Amino acid sequence: MALQLGDIAPDFTAETTEGPISFHQWIGDSWAVLFSHPKDFTPVCTTELGETARLKPEFDKRNVKIIGLSVDPADSHRAWAGDIKETQGYALNFPVIADPDRTVANLYGMIHPKADDTLTVRSVFVISPDKKIRLILTYPASAGRNFAEILRVIDSLQLTDKYKVATPVNWKPGDDVIIVPSIPDDEAKKLFPQGWKTLKPYLRVVKQPR
Ligand code: BEZ
Fold first, then answer.
1. Residue 34's closest CA among 146, 140, 150?
2. Quick count: other Cβ atoms within 10 Å of Cβ 81?
3. What angle do CA 20, 6, 147 make, to 5 degrees?
4. Is 39 in the pocket of ligand 1 (CB under 6 A)?
5. Is the CB of 45 under 6 A from ligand 1?
6. Strands of 197-200's sheet in order across
7. Which member of 9, 14, 44, 45 is catalytic?
8. What are the pLDDT digits (tens) for 12-54?
9. Are 205 and 196 spatial neighbours (Cβ–Cβ below 8 Å)?
10. Domains detected in the chain
């Protein structure tokens, strides 16, 4: 069965551009983003890896480790890294998994045979420190992802874990948030002593906690 939110992210060992890793051990006490791209030396992937390298300090700030993957070998990843730096202005600053035998791709369902029977699609898995899968995204090979959106969802997930709030449509950090419906008003009074605005009994808007 396909992986679902709340599942434990499958553990594996693999070769990467930064040497061998054991995935759960590599995650440690951090959050993690595991993302696949279809192939090295391809245009959209080149832009995505450059952008992810540019955003690395933002992932670091949130205690998130990032790791890429494709079915190419590590030598190919390393050779391609020069093109990423040259064309995107940012050198690879996170590991990329070499998965030529597709072990990890198959574990995570990253190959969608009706799209392409050998290459990985653009998958994203956000994993929390307890190793649970908290977000799954799947994009086609032709559409580059928006990594700022991935950071935005991580901000939302981390807020939910810390403060029992949910984030409304198009939320950006600093915007008002919503008290999760499972918290009754009595408990909400303790959590949000500054009060909130009740638009409907199930729609309680509160300033974003810090
Ligand atoms: C790309 O990264 O540009 C790409 C890879 C596979 C298929 C289509 C585009």
1. 150
2. 17
3. 65
4. yes
5. yes
6. 165-166, 177-179, 203-206, 197-200
7. 45
8. 999 999 999 999 999 999 999 999 999 999 999 999 999 999 9
9. yes
10. 13-145 (3.40.30.10), 163-206 (3.30.1020.10)
